[in-house]
Amino acid sequence: MTRTSLPLAVALAASAGLLLSACGGGGSNSDKIQSSATTPTSAPATTASPTQAASPNAPKFDLPPDIIIDFKGFDSTDPKWKDPLRDAQYVATAILEAQSKIRTSETPNVKRYFNGLQGAKFADSVIAYGKSGNVATGTYHYYKPSVKDNGAGGTVTVTYCEDQRKAYDKNAKTGKVHVTTPSLSDFRAWNFGMAKDAAGDWQVYQYKWLQGAQQCQVA
C-alpha cells in the first residue's frame, strides 16, 4: 500500500533531520503510505497489543476498531531492554492513534512518547496529513525489533520493521478505503533514538525510516 500519509512521513524525516527514502506504492492507486524495516523470514505473528498492558502507568489509546496492530518479538527476556521495547510499541501505537482521526492538535500519547520538539513537529505533520481528508485504517505488523545501547547519556537506538500491505488510507467523510496492490514499498524500517525522561518513559528524541526496505520484506 502507499498511504497518503507520505507527506507526513516526509515531514517526519525532515523534522528529525534524518534520511528518508520514499517510493511509490503498487497498483493503480498511490494514495497510501508504504512500510519498510529489518529482515524476517516469515510473516509476523500476532502478539498482544500494548493497549492491553497491565501496568498501572500504561497509556490508554483511543483506536477505532478498523485499525489492527500486531507486534512480534518485542517481549525481551533481558530486563535491560524490556522497557525500551515496550515503549517502542507505545510509540508505534501513538503514531497510528494520531493518524486515525483528523487532528487539530497534539495527542496526549504523542506528547508523552516524543520529546517536546519532536512531538510538536510530529503533531504539525499529522494536522497537515488530516487536511487531505484521509485517516489510517487496516492492519499494521511490527516485527524484528532490536535495541542498541548508545553508551552515552543513557540513550538507546531501537529499530524494527513494519508491514503495511493491509494498511490503507480511508476518506474520513465517506469511509472509502483506498486499496492498492501490495509491493516492496509496503515494508518500512524504523530507527528511533530514545532516552528515558523524568517520569521513566522512554521518549523518542530523533528518528528516521526507510520506505521499501528489502531487509523487511516477508512473504
UniProtKB/TrEMBL annotation:
Superkingdom: Bacteria
Its keywords, alphabetically, are: Signal
Endpoints of the signal sequence:
1-21
Q: Compositional bias of type Low complexity: which residue ranges?
A: 35-59
Is-annotated flag, keyword Signal?
yes
Q: Where is this region: Disordered?
A: 29-62
The name under which this protein is listed is Lipoprotein
| Protein species of origin | Actinacidiphila rubida
